[in-house]
Amino acid sequence: MNNPVMTASGTFGSGQEFSEYVDLGRLGAVVTKGVANHPWEGNPTPRVAEVYGGMLNAVGLQNPGIDLFCRRDIPFLSQFDTRIMVNVCGHTEEEYCEVVERLAEEPVDLLEINISCPNVREGGIAFGTDPAAVETITRAVKRYARQPVIMKLSPNVTSIADMARAAEAGGADGISLINTITGMKIDVNKRKFVLANKTGGMSGPAIKPVAVRMVYQAAHAVRIPVVGMGGIMTGEDAAEFMLAGATAVSVGTANFTDPAATVRILSELEDYMRRTGTEDVNELIGAVTE
Hints:
Elements: E1 5-7, E2 29-31, E3 48-51, E4 54-57, H1 66-77, E5 83-88, H2 93-103, E6 110-114, H3 124-128, H4 131-144, E7 149-152, H5 160-169, E8 174-177, E9 181-184, E10 186-187, E11 192-193, E12 199-203, H6 208-219, E13 226-229, H7 235-244, E14 248-251, H8 254-257, H9 261-276
Parallel strand pairs: 1-14, 2-5, 5-6, 6-7, 7-8, 8-13, 13-14
Antiparallel strand pairs: 3-4, 4-12, 9-12, 10-11
Helix pairs in contact: 2-4, 4-5, 5-6, 7-9
């Protein structure tokens, strides 16, 4: 990649909505919204809520399906000097593999396999919380993939290191983490759940310390690259993830408050490097000291 800053799936569409605010060519990669083998309607509304230090979402991976994605989104993204990482979702092993096989001949650079969404009742969360299932789905996807496979891991587990090792054992080329933390919000005046789904995935600055800890643990458990994410709002936040062991970072919730957050964070990371005398961004990876 041109640099280690990319978007987080589900927060940037496929770039079209943000292209008037962001030069997509400045990003290391654009990570698309989740793509399934057929259109998904997602969960009923309301499905987004603001909370202290972030937000809850229970969108449920609404997406137009792989056919429209290939016709519309890949040609758009191919115009820019950036890597294209397609986030793949599914309910079953067969659904994941069908999308991966469909993308094998498409001009995309990386696949991020979402086995960790807490807002889909079937599939994702079940795969992402059992090490044996993580290894199995990773191995299945790798049989069909022509591009490098990044497995997106869930924080809603007892041991993130076990999940990371399972993905590596299944043949993953890299891992990304963390996905959202399961949360809930109740309207105390109406005495009702704020989200129709009752629970949702929490993201934003409030989860960053958890994310940094898990990235550190995962990076020390495996030899494959780690993409870190979870509450990154500034260039120093990005540097913190890289010092913990991340090879690259994804910016998510920040996009909702600042459409140009990704390029701003990239500039701030460059400023941090100049200020600390860091000549090569790779010098940051895992450089935290005791």
